[in-house]
UniProtKB/TrEMBL annotation:
It comes from the Bacteria. Residues 1-119 form the RCK N-terminal domain. Keywords: Ion transport, NAD, Potassium, Potassium transport, Transport. Coiled coil: none annotated. It comes from Solibaculum intestinale. This is Trk system potassium uptake protein TrkA.
Amino acid sequence: MKIIIVGGGKVGYYLCKSLLENGHDIRLIETNKEACTRIANELDIPVVCGDGTTIESLDSAGASDCDALVAVTGKDENNLIACQLGRVRFRAKKTIARSNNPKNLEIMRKLGVDIPVSSTGLITSLIEQTVDTVGIRLLASIHGEGVICEIKVPENAAVSNMRISKIPLPEECIIVSVVRRGEFFIPRGNTIIQPGDELVAVSTSKDRKQLVKTLTAVKK
């Protein structure tokens, strides 16, 4: 893949190095002349010394036929502008922007960035995926707005022996599979939940905590 990276700081440098090692065609845009010289010499890749938020620099890097444009500067506004230019002016197939402030993720998404990425969000996601707390595990994030999670029903859960149709699940949540004593099946509304069931559910991010609370609450 031909990938243009805007920003030659630590993130941009190691991203270039990693993608290069995986066989991709990498081009870098960076404003700092010393960084440009160092990266060009160390990684032997084309480096444009310029502003990645300008048409001229993006054009010089070959944005007109790139497969992906990745903006990872230290300024969210610059990352957004670079991705918007890449998408609208150069028809980049995929745009990815680093969001230093997690609060800007939704704004970037609404303004056309295909994949806004927050370091804070990634760390949080990794922790949630690797730490199994009370039988709850996050399997995947869906476009930053939804989640797929695995929940094990406790032995003394309040939902034990209840039909799924009777469980007060949040409106935008659905149980998509059940593993019971090693056997997998797709549940229906009349499926009765049993202690020890391993449930996979899809939910909006905002409803995840309520979903987990509902399925793991214990009988009083």
